[in-house]
From TrEMBL:
PROSITE patterns: NDPK_LIKE. Its EC number is 2.7.4.6. Keywords: ATP-binding, Kinase, Magnesium, Metal-binding, Nucleotide metabolism, Nucleotide-binding, Transferase. It is an enzyme of class 2 (transferase). GO terms for molecular function: ATP binding; metal ion binding; nucleoside diphosphate kinase activity. The active site is at residue 122. Residues 4-145 form the Nucleoside diphosphate kinase-like domain. InterPro entries: NDK-like_dom, NDK-like_dom_sf, Nucleoside_diP_kinase. The gene is awd. ATP binds at residues 12, 60, 88, 94, 105, 119. One of its GO terms (biological process) is UTP biosynthetic process. Belongs to the NDK family. It comes from Limosilactobacillus coleohominis 101-4-CHN. This is Nucleoside diphosphate kinase.
Amino acid sequence: MFKTEYTLVLIKPDGIQSHHLGEIITRIERKNYQIAALEMIKASEDQLRRHYSDKVDQSFFPELIHYMQEGPIAGIVVAGTNVVKEIRKMAGATNPGDATVGTIRADFGREWPDGVMRNVVHTSDSVANAQREIQIWFPELNLPK
Ligand SMILES: Nc1ncnc2c1ncn2[C@@H]1O[C@H](COP(=O)(O)OP(=O)(O)OP(=O)(O)O)[C@@H](O)[C@H]1O
């Protein structure tokens, strides 16, 4: 019996500004995953502080908040078997310079001259974190348990 999981993908401002929204959604759909929710969002500082609560002590935290508010982001909830691990694989390494060709970050990532990695997407790293993050960006979404 396969269990449906949910994960959160955020397409960050650089991904939207460089017109990769459609291509990223296409890559997800080509893997046969289901888009369960999709919204363009202007991230608030409160949402970002909750989402990146484990990064508050990092030197790059102020730049990270600034980067995530440079423009709209797209919030996407994706459903499917093993989706957390598979979407994370599709995103590639955190630093686009280290990411494998064919991953989203390698293919669409840019230089990051201002101290924060500009890496196109966020993807949840565990089922538990996905549930926590989906609550932040889609507080009214009721997903099946
Ligand atoms: N050493 C670093 N220098 C600059 N920016 C960083 C660094 N590490 C992480 N970041 C930025 O902070 C974000 C969150 O870092 P994290 O370690 O959670 O990476 P991740 O899980 O691969 O990325 P995300 O949480 O965005 O999916 C990264 O996506 C990147 O934009």
